[in-house]
Every structure is written in structure tokens, then in C-alpha cells.
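Q: How would the C-alpha cells look for this protein?
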Amino acid sequence: MEMNSSISTALQGRRSLLRAGVLTVAAALAVTGCSSGASGTSDGISDDHLTIYNSYKIAGLDPAATGTNWLFDWGVAENLLQVEEDGQITPWLAENVERRDDLTWVITLRDGQTFQNGKPVTAQAVAAALTRQIEKSKAARVYLESGTQAVVEGDRVVLRTPKPNAMVPAGLAARDNSLQIYDVEAIDAAAGDSAKIVGSGAYTGPYAITQWTPTDLELVRYDAYWQGTPALSGISVDVVPDEQARIAGVESGEADMAFYPSTGARLALEGRPGVAVKNSPKALQSLLIEMNLKEGVFTDLDVRKAFTQAIDYQGVADNIGNGSFDAAEGLYPEGLPYALDNQKFDLEAAKSTLDKAGWVVGSDGIRTKDGQRLTVRFVTQAQGPETTDVAIGIQDQVAKAGFELKIDVAEDSAAVKENPAGWDSSIALSGSLSGTADPIQPYLVRWTTGGSSNAQGLSNPEIDAIGEKLRSTFDEDERNALLERAQEILVAEQAYVVAGTFKYFTVVTSDEWSGYDVSNVRRHIRYDTGA
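A: Here is the predicted structure in C-alpha cell form.
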């Protein structure tokens, strides 16, 4: 397995400068002006420096824009609440968050916390960050709608919502660049230029940014971090689009970890010295299969139902996942209190449905109707190679029912789906749960009318009504019942969407990092993460 030569040369050059002391972490701090509380070593990268090869770009550093979910992942940004590995929401920067009444939430902060620039994390600073996000971030307004106010009462922050809002705890814990806490003055001073945020110490996490481009993030330990001294001197996150190059980087010693390996990586690396393939304990990330409801073959309910019936979900997990997948029986992982097992593989039912709908099998096995072939243009994600692996498996499965699946491996699948005439179905690492295991945020953005991630054009009055109720109900039993009813509509009745499989989060590590615990909820780096 050989690393792309241009990528290797560029990365080795930068690493050589660091190791030689020409560009030390200390020098980077001097250039960027980051707080002196952040530290490194005077002679370059030390033994406790972690290098990660990732496949996704870090689009920007302003939480009101997009892409800063990666700062949550890599230990830069923090929230008031956090989701633990078992899915429970617990305090993080906040000592406590309490609902005073249906419209009021009281946030009590911990003592002694600072931003990486040394400024204290006060109630005023937290209220300013929440207010800025509500005003500027669409992602934040999924959780805290316009009209929500963050005000200061003594040393506490009070959130006042215009309507009863049950999403507040999940929002305060959300990964998706929505309600992270930061120094508003430092971010505003950058005026939208992410390069000017570098070195500002605007965040609260254990690692501070010393260098950034969309393909390169350099971090250094923040010694004054509130939970204790971070375990690593620094972290490098490099975007290496080619999967083989990412893994080759680990094998050669240039990187310690490679994220987003394909499902074939485990088999390919089995028995090889110097590397390990690690899974998260739980498979929480669903690879959603969405149908284009605006135009094309899936505007026909019978075709949608036949397609979802022709997929062998257990076969996808057993024959394609190589230990990276868990079979999808419904939209949500088994064991969650609201999860239904209503995704059923039934090839004969799929054939019968298409027969009755007038789709006739041709000499090549592909069905036609009124001169139209039953062709499905199926979009996958180049950054997530497992999506193409699953597509290839599904291609063979649905062909037995008479579907012709044409796979489009897209560098930007979202851009492809902006054109309704350019696709019929897609599979993506989108998920029915958010990165922090919340079911409501994905529901609202993917399946309600006008949702920000609703490329399907899904518009169903009952689904919309359920979404509004999910926003406002504080009763867990009612929430579970609403989600169950939604699954009946989305999967069984209308076949709008199914989960192709559930994915364990998988990381390829060096031997030195073979004891690394992979997170269920993408908290890849914590302050005590170490080899």
C-alpha cells in the first residue's frame, strides 16, 4: 500500500521541519499569539504528539458558519453539556442545567474555567456565545429557535424560550457546530476570517489551534485546562483524501491514526505488523438510504417499497461489513427504547409489487415499463468509502428484483443532490441519530418540510406535526411513541428512507496506539486521551 507521493512529500516536509526544531510548537505559539498557558516542546514534536490522517476537511473555525464540529471531535471546542458513551447527557462546562418551568432553563457554571487565551468563562461570556449562535447559526436554531434569549442572573445564565422546548439539553450537548462555547470578542475580531481565529485562544478545550487550513489543523496542549493537564503535547490533523494513503501513513510511521477506513481495511490489514483496526463499542451511525421524491422512479410508492424490500439488510452486515457493521432492522439501532424493527428483506414481495405495478422483466433481468428501464442513479460519498462498499453489495441484491443500480461516487454528494434530475437514491454517513446520539435534530433537518438537509423533498403533514410535538414534549414516553409512529410512516407506509446498515466507528491505529478507545459519539480526543 503506497502513499500518494505528493501528499507524502508535503507532509514529510512539514514533519521534518517540526522534528528539526525549525518550526517548533513554541515558535508557532509566538507567531500566532496564543496564550502562554499553551505549551509544547522546545525541540519539536515530542513522543506524545499525535498525528491523525482524516478524510474530511475542516471548513472553518467560526462556530456560526460550518465545519467546526471537527473542533469538538479533536478536543478544541466544548459545550455546556456532553453526551457520554452510553448516551446519557451530563454536565461539561456547566455544573448543572435545570428546567425551572416550561419556558425557562437555568445554567450554573463551574468555577475556575478559562478560555485558552486566559479569559475567564463567565456567565456573561457564555450568554454572549449562546446569543451569537442563536442569531447567526442555522444549526443552532434547530435547537433554540429565534426568540430564545440567553440572559445573566447573578453568576448564572438563564435561557428563556418562546415556546416549550424539550430540545434544550440535546442542543447544549450537540456536536454539530451549533452551541459550542467560545470567546465572542475573539471570534468577532476575526470578522469571518478563520485564519485570524488561529492563535486567538477563543475556545475552552484541552488543545489550542496554532495552525489551520481546510486540510491541516495543528494543535498544542493548553496547560491551564480546567479538567487537568492534557496528556498530549500536541495534535496534527491532516486531510488525506485517499484511503490507502491514510493507512500507508500509519504503516510508515508518519501518522498514528487513520480515520474513515473502508470495510475492506480490516481484512486487508489482518496479520500485518504495526497496525490495528479498532471499533467503537456500539454501532450508532446509520448509513441512510434516501429516495428522491421530487422526480424520477422513486416518486412511485410501489417502486420505493419494492426497492426497500429487495435489500438484504442482514446480508449487508454479514457480507460487506467485515466486522464494521451491525444489521439494520429499522431506522434506529436496536436497544433504543423507540427503535422499531420494520425493515424487512422480502425478495418475493418486491418482485410481486413490481409485477402488479406493471414493471416487466427484460431479457437482461432489468425491468421496464412504458419504455423506461428501472434504473436507479445511486449516489455515494467519496470521503466515506464504506458507502460505496454498501452500494456495490446492494447493487447485486436489488438486481434480483429487476433494478439496475448505477453508482455515482461523488466528491460532494450534497451538491449532486441539489439537482433533482441528477439522482434517484443515495447512501450517506448522515444518520438517524446526531453525532451525540440525539434523534430529534436529524428528524427535523432531514424529514420535515423545508428541513436544511431534506434533499429528498420529503413533505408529509403527519411527519411535520410529529416534529413539532417532538420539539415541545418533555415526556419521554410520549417522545418514544411519536418516534415509533414516525418510523411506521417513513419506513413501512411510505418507504421514504431506510437505514442500509449501522456502522461501528472504525479507526486504524499504530501499534503504539492499539489501546485507543474509539468513541461511540465522536469524542475522539479528550483531555486524558493518550497512547
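Residues 69 and 177 are 5 Å apart (CA to CA).

Residues 476-493 form the longest helix (18 residues).

Upvote if useful.
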